[in-house]
Amino acid sequence: MIITKEVKIVLGGINISHFKNLGYNIPKIKGKWGYVTPHGTEILVKVVDLPKSSKAEIQCYCNECLRKNKKEIVNCTYKYYYEKKNKNEDILCDKCKKEITAKNIKNSEYHIKIHNKAITKKEIELENKRIEKEQKRLNYLNEIRDIALDIGLIPDFNNEDYIDKKHKLNFICPIHGDTPKTPSQIEHKYRCKYCAQIEAHKKQKYNYTYVKSKYLENGFILMERTYENVDTPMRCYCINHPNKIQYKSFRMILDNRICFYCQHEMQQKEGHPSWKGGLTLLYNDLRRIIEPWKFDSSNFYKGKCILTGSYETVIHHLHKSFKSIIDECLNYYNVDLNYSTVSALNKDELFNIESMILDLHYKYGYGIPLHKEIHNLFHKLYTTKNNTPEQFEEFKTRLKSGEFNLFLEENNLTLKVV
């Protein structure tokens, strides 16, 4: 209940027009630009005529005290009074405020209601933040997918696979298969490295005549009729060994790699740093014979690791180990593998052994390309002797079951999804 009936207010701004419209006499004096109301002019107005936002000080009775037949005066602004009245709330003195607050705290229902209201509000805020964060995450992944498609990679991951910008997600190159990359790399438009290399080589593609002449400079006759790129192995033979087909990429020629057989012969000569008095064991020497079989095995699987899709591979003997094939051949010729040296055999004997070993490799079927670290892991688990296809199937099952996930993570490898 308002006690104050009238109050003095200072005229200025929009309140001049407000009170003028209500019929109040607004003092004016003649100034330079006409009649104006002097700054700081005060007039007496009725409280009921004050604007609802007025900060004029008024006096009211405490509603709670009036109920107790007491009259306690409360000083407040008209704005405060108007807001309370508009919300049907009481104007209270300080003493009544404290009493009512203490009473409400003792009231368990009120306390629980306020508490639950606070919890609900907090939960809503947290949920809204979670939804906002998830939406940002989805928008970011969609952006990554769009960038990947622009640079020629097909996204092959679920939203749940995303951890952060530094953990790799799977993408597929239409030409080279699985290409794991981090979201950060995709943001910076890192393409499939093999496609990028091929494109770079195409921009600097060497003329076939020039390539052929470089092979000849290194002592090789190129057998291919066309040239693709510096990393593709091409058939050739050494001028000194025309019956030995070799597979050398143009990059190897640019690095001045010499004939494998010429190098081997040089190592057998006294004075060479690798010469061991003619005691090079036959087993070590025969590793060089199976290069054509390795090349054909790699081509059969398009040069990719059958487990990861990587191009960093070595050829794994699947059906019969290298040692078993060597034993079969040398038993046929009655040659002791462990103690026989290359220098102890004549050229015909060595040629027959080498031919048979290569033929046996083709007889038992192609090997399979494996990433070099996975290949090392296999032989660490199953040794290098008498390996079988059944061992390899067991190894694949163990890989896919997650037994070696830490090993794969340490070597930045991802298994192909079959």
Structure description:
This protein has 418 residues and is of the alpha+beta class. The chain folds into four domains: 6-101, no CATH class; 109-189, no CATH class; 205-275, no CATH class; 282-418, no CATH class. Helix content is 45%, strand content 14%. It contains 17 helices and 14 strands. The chain has a three-stranded antiparallel β-sheet with strand order 7-8-9, with helices on one face. A hairpin with a 2-residue loop joins strand 11 (234-238) and strand 12 (241-248). Helix 13 packs across helix 14 (347-363). It is elongated, with a radius of gyration of 45 Å. The two termini are 82 Å apart.
Descriptive labels:
418 residues; alpha+beta; three-stranded antiparallel sheet; 14% strand
Write a short abstract of this structure.
A three-stranded antiparallel beta sheet has the order 7-8-9, covered by helices on one side. It has a three-stranded antiparallel beta sheet with strand order 10-11-12. α13 (322-332) crosses α14 (347-363).
- Percent range of helical residues: 40-55%
Low-confidence stretches: 270-280
Question: What characteristic shape results from the CA principal axes?
Answer: elongated
Rounded mean pLDDT score: 83
Q: How many E-type strands?
A: 14
Radius of gyration: 45 Å
Helical segment tally? 17
Strand order of the largest sheet: 7-8-9
Structural category: alpha+beta
From the N-terminal CA to the C-terminal CA, the straight-line distance is 82 Å
Largest sheet: 3 strands, antiparallel
Q: How much strand content do the residues show?
A: 5-15%
Domain count: the total is 4
